Amino acid sequence: MPQFITVSDPDDPRVAAYRDIRERDLVGRQGLFVAEGETVLRAFVRDAPDRVESLLIDPKRRDKLDAVFAGLPEATPVYLVEQAVLDAVAGFHLHRGVLAIGRKPEPLSAEALLSTLEGRAMVLVLCGIANHDNMGGIFRNAAAFGVDGVILDSDCCDPLYRKAIRVSVGATLSVPTAWLARDEDTAGLLERHGFEALALSPSATEILARLKPPERSAVLLGAEGPGLSADLIARARPIGIPMAKGFDSLNVATTSGVVLHHLRFGER
Q1: Radius of gyration (Cα) for the chain, nearest Å?
Q2: Phi, psi dihedral angles at 252 (to 5 degrees)
Q3: Class for domain 110-265, per CATH?
């Protein structure tokens, strides 16, 4: 069982990692991240208990978290902090009343991730996704439809940013994630590992509903507005999602859900 420690002073150095969360979100945490809320905490402890550094909770929530505590490594500190003190530490009213500090995993290269995937597989490749809500939504869909990995280019935001974790309902903590090096040949990498690159584009003439899901598929998604580069689309198989007349854009997270559902359950 973890070590339960009552903290009554917001300036207690033992909870320094939780202080002024929003400001720290902006400057980074040197290999650490903050997870927020009961649902996210349950996912974190279930999927990566060895990466939990500590917990900070309102004592009123303690009884509901017995299963979480049982999954923590011995001696993990759990700081019990009344709501008023918790708010003072965080720097704003934290109505969820549950926080955790976690260690980020070692960065994984896209090459290394793809090398582990044999047989039928499905991955997402994200290019320039800089909005944390979209990032969290995409990871939530990736987990829901059994994606084998998410690959991000160097212009994507951090999926372990607090808001992205929360929106993903903890999926960013469990879905295998890798990074492309800047200027890495994305299309060449996917081809080398036998993945068919499907580039989502509103200008594509091939319709998603008529696509037979490939054995090994890589779904390429770009940021809303600029989308994917012309070069990447030219070296992939452009796929479109028909929409009502006069409308030509879906939110990128919504797009990911539509595409992944088809690839997982469409006729082969």
Answers
A1: 21
A2: -65, -35
A3: alpha beta
Query: 6 in helix, strand or coil?
Result: strand
Q: Tell me the CATH number of domain 3-103, given options 3.30.559.30, 3.50.50.60, 3.60.20.10, 3.30.1330.30.
A: 3.30.1330.30
| Interstrand relation of 149-152 and 216-222 (parallel, antiparallel or unpaired) | unpaired
Identify whether the C-beta of residue 14 lies closer than 8 Å to the C-beta of residue 79. Answer: yes
Judged against a pLDDT cut of 80, whether residue 248 lies above it is answered with: no
Give which of 28, 27, 43 is closest to 165, Cα–Cα.
Answer: 43
Q: Where are the alpha helices (DSSP H) in the chain?
A: 21-27, 38-47, 66-70, 83-90, 110-115, 132-144, 162-167, 186-192, 230-234, 252-265
Boundaries of CATH 3.40.1280.10 in the chain?
A: 110-265
**What six digits make up the tokens of 96?**
């969820």
What is the pTM (predicted TM-score) of this model?
0.93
Predicted confidence (pLDDT) per residue in 185-234, tens digit? 999 999 999 999 999 998 899 999 999 999 999 999 999 888 899 999 99
Q: How is 92-153 classified by DSSP, letter by letter?
A: S--TT-EEEEEEPPPP-BHHHHHHT--SSEEEEEEES---HHHHHHHHHHHHHTT-SEEEE-
Task: Report helix angle 132-144 to 252-265, nearest 10.
Answer: 10
**Both structure tokens of 100:** 């955790």
What is the side-by-side strand order in the sheet with 32-36? Answer: 3-6, 77-80, 52-57, 98-103, 32-36
